[in-house]
Amino acid sequence: MTRIEVSPEMVTLYGSGIAGEGPFPEQAQAFVFDFSEGSFHFHSVFEPSELHADAARLRLIVIVARAACERLRGQPSLLQDKQHYHMPAALRSIVVAVRDCALPEGVQQIYRGAKCIELLCETMRLDVEDLLLPNGAVGGLSIADSERLLAARRVIEERSAEKLTIEGIARMCGLNRGKLTRGFRELFDCSVADAIAEQRLSRAGNMLLATDLPISSIGYRCGYLNNASFTRAFSRHFGIAPTRYRAARVAA
Length: 252
Prior knowledge:
The protein has helices at residues 66-73, 89-99, 105-128, 143-159, 166-173, 177-188, 192-210, 215-221, 227-238, 242-251, and strands spanning 2-7, 10-15, 28-34, 39-43, 59-65, 84-86. By secondary structure, the chain is α+β, with helices and mostly antiparallel strands.
């Protein structure tokens, strides 16, 4: 595997193959992101030999000293040892950026190292906020239905700008309407409509800050058919109109 020395407390490994003999940070923990499964698993005590079984898979392994993880979290971790977790869009986009980096070889390691720091920090944020969902059976849901619901969540994350309906999402993921709506409440503590709105408006907020596109164009790109409906939804969600949101952040 390609080794990236991020800091004395953090090493990342990228690609396929065994983790090797190190050196690695002392008393380290590991986050193993699997490119093909859309999931990651956590090792509270890093042992390279435990990762050999999946050596043929394309992985990104972030190895960090436990003390550094505790500083970042600021509180005890909610992650369970060797538990597999759903990889939400916020993490998948960073992992894909590492995988698809096309920069010249001389700067690839610098870029990938920086993205791995971002990946660790974002994972810690989601951990602290209890937003990471374990793969497998949850509550009264079977393993199969939990996986279908996670697939439905990925559809929303990746296609929120499209015209999505409960029936359409249910069909794509092999669920009926009732099981989709009940399952979303149980697994994600929100409705399907809330999840779609959250994804669209989060993307819109980022675009307001990162681009100079007209507000009406941003609303359309995020799935709203007209500027009035976008402005109403955005104002309810953020407590401020899109124009004021952009102006306030620019002024700050």
